[in-house]
Amino acid sequence: MTSGTNRILDDLAKLMTDAAGSVQTAGKDLETAVKAQVERWLNSMDVVQREEFDAVREMAIKARDENDELRARLEALEAKLGEKADAE
Questions:
Q1: Rg of the Cα trace of the chain?
Q2: What angle do CA 52, 53, 55 make, to 5 degrees?
Q3: For every one of its 88 residues, what pLDDT tens digit does the chain have, with 9 covering 90 and above?
Q4: Is the pTM higher than 0.85?
Q5: How many domains does the chain have?
Q6: Which of 3, 8, 74, 77 is the most exposed place for a label (fewest CB within 10 A)?
Q7: Rounded-to-integer distance, Cα 50 and Cα 37, Å
Q8: Rounded Cα gap, residues 17 and 23, in angstroms
Q9: What is the 3-state secondary structure (H, E, C) of the chain?
């Protein structure tokens, strides 16, 4: 009787393990499907990806810094020209 009970318990444990594996696989499949659907939805809305946003942001920061430098150089040149015109 003991070996029969052990066999039933072993079969039950195997069945539970297989069921847990199936649930885990189904969960991964659902996660993959949801991610794909969300990505399609975002693409249809023309939403930019984070990497693209960060790249454009860095370009804008660099352009703003260059613009500030050029503005300072231009103001310095205009000041020199103003001094030169006043001296003549």
A1: 34
A2: 65
A3: 556 778 888 888 888 888 888 888 888 999 999 999 998 888 888 888 899 999 999 999 999 999 999 999 999 999 999 888 777 7
A4: no
A5: 2
A6: 3
A7: 18
A8: 10
A9: CHHHHHHHHHHHHHHHHHHHHHHHHHHHHHHHHHHHHHHHHHHHCCCCCHHHHHHHHHHHHHHHHHHHHHHHHHHHHHHHHHHHHHHC
Same domain, 42 and 52: no
Residue at 33: amino acid letter: A
Q: Are residues 41 and 52 in the same domain?
A: no
Please give the backbone phi and psi of residue 27, each rounded to the nearest 5 degrees, phi first.
-65, -45
> Are 25 and 58 part of one and the same domain?
no
Residues constituting the chain:
88
Token duo for residue 12: 């039950």
Give the pair of three-digit tokens for residue 61. 């920061």
Query: What does the alpha-carbon distance between residue 31 and residue 22 come to, in Å, rounded to a whole number?
Result: 14
Token pair listed for 68: 């500030």
